[in-house]
């Protein structure tokens, strides 16, 4: 089975609270992760919610990165959705390190299954002639 | 176990190609879904990529909705990430119907686990006095 996209779901926990409230720093890290992976940034939009927490998205030609932080719990939810030739591992390693996460869970999902042709979709094969 | 957020991952397939290239219509549908769920829209950003496909995000106070379309495959990848009191089912039903998806897969992920206190975290209990 082939897929159109790949989606990494990162649960970054035990991150320093000071980082998780720092909207400009988080925007900078998410954009850097996109560049490190080889993605092309279309635009990025980040918001600092009062009193706590940052939400942001980096739209890339190859889909998107998003982040939401809960500083009071030391938690950041990061999603990286990509298609094409993207070095996901480099971006993921960078974010885990720069967010200072002491515990990490990463799920990988394939998105957009391209069904392969089943045998029943193919024209009937002509049986080779049996040797006499 | 309690969680900070809930993340629905929708695979909408066999959608009409004419819709999946229509950036203003898709933006309108995604914003309507956010409102129907009871979410508060912070901003929404949508892009039509040449020659095909739409990418967009609706940032809501309660996290985000994203969409990426592959019209040539009749496929739309939709993510709905929310926290708080949001009627996910109404938003999901609306999008499945309005995208005209003939086949749908929906995954639900809990995000941001809040660990409950284990017995070992509690102070030791004093054993009740045994009856004489």
Descriptive account of the structure:
With 132 residues, chain A is of the alpha+beta class. Chain A has one domain: S-adenosylmethionine decarboxylase, CATH 3.60.90.10. Chain A has helices at 17-20, 23-37, 88-98; strands spanning 2-13, 41-48, 54-60, 63-70, 75-82, 103-114. Chain A has a 6-stranded antiparallel sheet, covered by helices on one side. In chain A, a hairpin with a 2-residue loop joins strand 3 and strand 4. In chain A, helix 2 packs antiparallel against helix 3 (88-98). The longest helix of chain A is centred in the first third of the chain and has 15 residues, at 23-37. Chain A is globular and about 50 Å long. The relative contact order of chain A is 0.29. The A-B interface holds A 4-5, 7, 9, 11, 42-43, 45, 47, 49, 55-57, 59, 61, 63-64, 66, 68, 70, 73, 75, 77, 79, 81, 83, 107, 109, 111-114 and B 4-5, 7, 9, 11, 42-43, 45, 47, 49, 55-57, 59, 61, 63-64, 66, 68, 70, 73, 75, 77, 79, 81, 83, 107, 109, 111-114.
